[in-house]
Write a structure and sequence with these properties.
Layout lengths: L1 E5 L6 E5 L4 E5 L2 H7 L4 E7 L3 E5 L3 E6 L5 E6 L6 E6 L5 E5 L16 E3 L15 E2 L5
Parallel strand pairs: 3-10, 10-11
Antiparallel strand pairs: 1-2, 2-5, 3-4, 4-9, 6-7, 7-8, 8-9
The chain binds zinc ion (2 copies).
Length: about 140
């Protein structure tokens, strides 16, 4: 099926051709800094399934704890974070679920895994049923 998404201003849109995705929260410090929020919610999909259909995102390379590059793609106009490509997961893209259209930001009501729970704010509880990884697994 096709999932679509966009940034806040609509300058960037994308489409994903995938039957399913892995739903993952990431509580790492970089995700907090990037979004200004407590965590990112992600639909993790095969990298080849993601196509930008309008505009050109900017990118910023952050160096992860592994020493590998985490490429952050965002709208140059409104600043929405759209997706990340991690050098440690060369075949996958972590689409920021809040940018998905049609209520898909809900991730089907299910979170399969939480990363970097060691950095999760103490006011948030673990998601029931989600695998808990202290760092990146
Ligand atoms: Zn935008
Ligand atoms: Zn993170």
């Amino acid at each position: 099926m096709t999932f679509t998404g966009s940034c806040m201003c609509g300058g960037i849109t994308y489409a994903i051709e995938a039957d399913k995705y892995l739903s993952a929260l990431c509580h790492c410090i970089d995700c907090q800094k990037w979004t200004g929020g407590a965590f990112t919610s992600n639909a993790v999909v095969p990298r080849a399934s993601v196509k930008v259909t309008k505009g050109t995102p900017n990118s910023y390379d952050a160096t992860g704890k592994s020493g590998k590059i985490n490429k952050h793609f965002f709208c140059p106009t409104c600043g929405s974070g759209l997706y990340t490509e991690l050098e440690v997961m060369p075949d996958m893209t972590c689409v920021k679920a809040g940018t998905l259209d049609g209520g898909e930001a809900n991730l089907g009501g299910k979170v399969e895994i939480e990363f970097y729970v060691k950095d999760r704010p103490s006011y948030l509880a673990p998601v029931a049923g989600a695998k808990q990884e202290p760092m990146f697994g």
